[in-house]
Amino acid sequence: MKRLLALCVCAALLFSGCGAAGKQAHISTALTQRTPILIDSDGNISDFYALAYVNTCDKLDLRAITCSYGAVSLEQAGINLLSSAELYGFSCPVALGARYPTSSFVIYNSQTDGKNGLGDVILPTPKKQFDSRPAWQVMYETAKEEGGKLQIICMGPLTNVARAITEYPDFKDYVAGVTTTAGGGSVEDLASDGTRLTGPVMPEQSDLLNDTGALETLTTSGIPVTLIGTYVSPGYFLGYSPEKGAENTLDVWLAPESTYSEYFLAVREHFKASGKFQDIAAFPSVMAILSVIDPTLLTYSPLKSAVCRESTLEIMQMPMQDRDSSTIQIATSISDLDQYDEMFMFMPIYYRAQE
Length: 355
Description:
Blueprint (H helix, E strand, L loop, with lengths): L1 H13 L20 E7 L3 H7 L8 E8 L6 H14 L6 E3 L13 H4 L21 H11 L4 E5 L4 H9 L7 E6 L15 E5 L5 H4 L2 H8 L5 E3 L21 H5 L7 H12 L11 H10 L4 E12 L2 E6 L10 E7 L2 H17 L2
Parallel strand pairs: 1-2, 1-4, 2-3, 4-5, 5-7, 7-10
Antiparallel strand pairs: 6-9, 8-9, 8-10
């Protein structure tokens, strides 16, 4: 019921004549000025939908997309992301990154996202070409151009950003922050100051498992890091409610018709194939980009360290007296579920308003 209400509220705002010259309202945001972002992705379903949120925020400036192996091979991820960039009208460069991890064994997560990473949906063939530079060079040069304002959103393995840190010692000085979905681990208790906590990383948390060493490279670099993983993302999912006859909220979310409906709904069919009561999704990549659009949406716990040893996440919470000096934080909950719900449901309605 709350999600249906959020959908109605979003629609009312969009069609109330907000904005000049017929332009419709953008998503609500806590950002007050232009915020340059770079998205690093392995080209899966969650990332496909997450990329669609970029246009909804008038404060975001997408400077580049970099591609990683992960849900599928690097080559397939590149095709998915180049096609998505053209579909959504992005003019930024799209660059291929690492084909293999800096450490650990590659775990392709094809069971979740289909053989091609997009539920076997084929997007229109793009006209644009890949940037000739490797992903880590694009990261470095873009960060340097932005003079310390660039926010990097990593929606796949952390290999590319780890390579940038290793290849360019001053890279860390030019990055405002990295938000990553490779922050998985079922850590049950984050309340004890200064205590070392551990939690298992499950096989489906492939963003982290595909390159466990890259997490340590990132968290020890001094770059501000926000971890968004399985500790918080299951706090919001779409699918069937237990109530008899309840409408599937995946269908409610994607109901508004727009230029992209054909592709949104085609990709959505992949989840239906899993069966009625398994037809659910949490979309951590959407959570990552929404947390950049509005940093107040989630609550966080500051950390002293965060590393992954084999399949175990090890974190040390920052002592209370030192929390202001922490450069690592892990998302622990959604601070305002109604606001998050409204922002999440906004994207398809936004594109309907552009028709």
